[in-house]
Amino acid sequence: MTKEEKVEQLEAINAEVAACEKCPLHQGRTHTVPGEGNPNSPLLFIGEAPGFHEDQQGRPFVGAAGQFLESLLRSIGVSRRQVFIANVIKCRPPDNRDPEASEVSACNDYLDRQIAAIDPLVIVTLGRYSLNKFIPGQRISRIHGQPRRVGNRTVMPMYHPAAALHRGSLRREIEADFAKIPDVVRAARQLVHEQPDEPPPTIDPTPPPEQLSLL
To answer: How far apart are CA 63 and CA 119, in angstroms?
Structure first.
């Protein structure tokens, strides 16, 4: 799929999300937050749900947790515009409560179609709700930082960046897990190269200088 085709599919999904009334969350939203980033990136980050600032701006991870995520990306030589960032659900739950099962179910098709369009090498799950989508029944405290093959993709479970804001002791663990991402992407790319019938995804031809060589 070309980048233009990916963009077209993602824009169609965004339009559907903007008009979505599948669950009661649409009644209290300011903006939907479908996701944003480079559709050709080998990295897809999936968080849980928009918060106050995300709801106000219609963009994922723009609050305090987003600032920490951006610093984590810089630590491995990547800017946020070089990856794609989305959430399990696309509207803010009241008072930032946890997503309910019915809300996750209502948004599931949107996320599945985003994944299919982007076709990332590695999906980084941020928090337990995105983890549960790919590796159900596991505790994030047990498997964070341990990449696993799920179908034909590599899934890298991580704590949500917001966890470090509430529990400072987790900050070093999150930073250590993030430092593994370059090697995880390289390993995932090697697996793709070993399957000649499935060429690796293309990337923008002129990456900015801070971009990782693996991207």
So the answer is: 27
Residue 196 CB coordination number (10 Å): 7
pLDDT, tens only, 61-97: 999 999 999 999 999 999 999 999 999 999 999 999 9
The burial of 108, by beta-carbon neighbours within 10 Å (0-12 exposed, 13-18 middle, 19 or more buried), is given as middle
**Alpha-carbon span 14 to 24, nearest angstrom:** 18
Model confidence pLDDT, tens digit, residues 147-180: 999 999 999 999 999 999 989 889 999 999 999 9
Could you tell me the pTM of the whole model?
Answer: 0.90
Query: Cα–Cα–Cα angle for 95, 99, 105, nearest 5°?
Result: 145
CATH of 3-193, one of 3.90.76.10, 3.40.50.880, 3.40.470.10, 3.90.1800.10: 3.40.470.10
